[in-house]
């Protein structure tokens, strides 16, 4: 073999090895590299041709140059923040002030981070969940710029192996919740923080484990109706095309949700549950079954309960879930957004909301939805890490460009919600918020809260906290906190009516 041919072969082998090593050594990557980084380009024509949305809504392309777009957050000014883990940065997409349906501009807000994923805006802080830490930086909503230096408030989070992304969200109790997926497909973790949802105080400190046995709960959100925490969860791989189902769990403090010993509706895992000893069998028996099952390997990621009063009654308080799409099955499935609807008995019905990311041939992939954010006007933003895009969905004209319907609409879908009965659990959480922020200092004597039920529904009162009338400050309450506070304030009025003397 001549030297030229020899060195050529060596070079080819090294290139192949290097490429495979990137996949093998990158935490969480166990699928072809192009499936993770995204190879699909998209444009307005592709969106119009390919994507369909449920009746009454329209979808447009808000931004199409956002590689590896993952988690989203919306500012008070209407700008959209998006994390880009593989770029190590968070970008800002300027709101559509000129009305053409597209972001008016785009810039990197902060970079040099270690695989940033989860985002949270709270009390003039931007919180960022890196793969191994949580940091925060002062944020000015008026001009969308950082107002200070970035500081890590929690460090030492494990990001080895698979499922290294971290997601954060503000709970109705004022704690910040943090999800951390498993380091493997199926195993008994050495680090007790893996495969859990944790929580910590906004100023930082040691996170405490809130719930465990959650293999990879990338997305979670609180129901605006009863304040319950719901989280998506990705089931394990290599048990066939149809098993196990991916999950939606109602997450309770101290709850154990089965992984790695059980899958789906408490079915013993063939590797870690079947034939296991009594201690493991006890864990399986006491684990909490899913509230809802998705198709196997559909990879549910972001979940968001719709809050804006501009949403139609058919979808208000429904939860959107991004099915990122399968890789571990013979025929691709998922690749869409679904909506979950609860009936009066707590049963959940799943409907398609946004689809067309998977071609009719069931092979061509146009995009993979990831996460959501919603502004106070009812615009829903959806990220796509495969196409590197952010879409805007809104209720109104078929193409999504028309005006959002106002409160004067007479259609059945746009009827304003009737006042709802007070939820005692939510009211109790609202009372804690009321006390923690010293609301009684003003409203106890100087500005008594009266006749709220005649002015607001529960949802309208919750929305009021977004832009309160001065001198009341803006507190950046989460949706669940606003809802809890509304229940508490309405309950005060009901209690007053019960104890009022008869004339």
CATH fold descriptor of the largest domain = Neuraminidase
Quaternary: single chain
Overall 3D shape: globular
In helices, the fraction of residues equals 10-25%
Sheet-strand content, in percent, reads 25-35%
The CATH class name of the largest domain reads Mainly Beta
Structural class: alpha+beta
Overall pLDDT metric: 85
Termini gap: 109 Å
> What's the CATH H-level homologous superfamily of the largest domain?
TolB, C-terminal domain
Spatial order of strands in the largest sheet: 1-25-24-23-22
The biggest sheet amounts to: 5 strands, antiparallel
Count of β-strands: 28
Domain count, please report it: 2
Rounded radius of gyration (Å): 24 Å
CATH architecture of the largest domain: 6 Propeller
- The helix tally amounts to 9
* Unreliable residue stretches: 1-37, 399-419, 499-503
Structure commentary:
InterPro entries: 6-blade_b-propeller_TolB-like (IPR011042), Beta-prop_PDH (IPR054539), Cyt_c-like_dom (IPR009056), Cyt_c-like_dom_sf (IPR036909), Quinoprot_gluc/sorb_DH_b-prop (IPR011041). It comes from Microbulbifer aestuariivivens. It holds the Pfam family TrAA12. Keywords: Heme, Iron, Membrane, Metal-binding, Transmembrane, Transmembrane helix. This is Cytochrome c domain-containing protein. The protein has about 500 residues and is of the alpha+beta class. It has two domains: about 35-395, TolB, C-terminal domain (Neuraminidase); about 425-500, no CATH class. Helix content is about 20%, strand content about 30%. The strands form seven sheets. Strands 1-25-24-23-22 form a five-stranded antiparallel sheet. Strands 7, 8, 9, 10 and 11 form a five-stranded antiparallel sheet that branches. Helix 5 (about 425-435) crosses helix 9. The radius of gyration is 24 Å and the shape is globular. Residues about 1-35, about 400-420 and about 500-503 have low confidence and may be disordered.
């Amino acid at each position: 073999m001549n030297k030229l041919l020899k060195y050529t072969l060596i070079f080819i082998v090294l290139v192949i090895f290097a490429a495979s090593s990137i996949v093998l050594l990158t935490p969480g990557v166990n699928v072809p590299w192009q499936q993770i980084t995204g190879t699909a380009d998209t444009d307005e024509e592709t969106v119009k041709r390919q994507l369909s949305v449920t009746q009454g809504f329209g979808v447009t392309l808000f931004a199409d140059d956002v590689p590896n777009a993952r988690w989203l957050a919306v500012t008070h000014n209407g700008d959209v923040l998006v994390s880009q883990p593989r770029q190590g940065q968070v970008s800002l997409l300027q709101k559509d002030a000129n009305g053409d349906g597209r972001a008016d501009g785009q810039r990197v807000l902060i970079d040099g981070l270690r695989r940033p994923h989860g985002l949270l805006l709270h009390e003039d802080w931007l919180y960022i969940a890196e793969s191994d830490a949580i940091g925060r930086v002062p944020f000015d909503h008026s001009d969308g710029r950082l107002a200070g230096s970035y500081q890590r408030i929690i460090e030492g989070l494990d990001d080895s192996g698979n499922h290294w992304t971290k997601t954060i969200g503000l709970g109705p109790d004022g704690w910040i919740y943090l999800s951390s997926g498993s380091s493997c497909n199926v195993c008994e973790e050495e680090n007790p923080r893996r495969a859990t949802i944790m929580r910590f105080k906004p100023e930082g400190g040691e996170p405490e484990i809130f719930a465990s046995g959650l293999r990879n709960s990338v997305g979670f959100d609180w129901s605006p109706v009863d304040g319950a925490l719901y989280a998506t969860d990705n089931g394990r791989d290599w048990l066939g095309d149809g098993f196990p189902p991916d999950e939606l769990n109602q997450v309770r403090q101290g709850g154990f949700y089965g992984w790695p010993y059980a899958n789906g509706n408490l079915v013993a895992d063939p590797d870690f549950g079947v034939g296991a000893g009594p201690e493991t069998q006890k864990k399986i028996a006491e684990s909490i079954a899913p509230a809802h099952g998705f198709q196997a390997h559909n990879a549910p990621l972001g979940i968001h309960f719709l809050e804006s009063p501009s949403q139609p009654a058919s979808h208000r308080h429904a939860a959107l879930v991004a099915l990122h799409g399968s890789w571990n099955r013979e025929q691709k499935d998922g690749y869409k957004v679904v909506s979950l609807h609860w009936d009066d008995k707590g049963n959940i019905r799943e409907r398609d909301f946004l689809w067309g990311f998977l071609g009719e041939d069931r092979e061509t992939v146009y995009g993979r939805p990831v996460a959501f954010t919603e502004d106070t006007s009812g615009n829903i933003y959806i990220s796509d890490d495969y196409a590197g895009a952010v879409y805007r969905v809104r209720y109104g004209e078929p193409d999504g460009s028309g005006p959002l319907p106002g409160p004067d609409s007479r259609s059945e879908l746009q009827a304003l919600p009737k006042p709802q009965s007070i939820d005692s659990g939510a009211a109790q959480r609202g009372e804690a918020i009321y006390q923690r922020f010293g609301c009684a200092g003003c409203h106890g004597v100087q500005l008594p809260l009266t006749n709220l039920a005649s002015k607001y529904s529960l949802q309208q009162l919750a929305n009021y906290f977004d832009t309160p009338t001065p001198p009341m400050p803006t507190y950046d309450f989460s949706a669940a906190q606003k809802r809890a506070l509304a229940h508490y304030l309405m309950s005060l009025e009901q209690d007053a009516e019960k104890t009022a003397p008869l004339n």
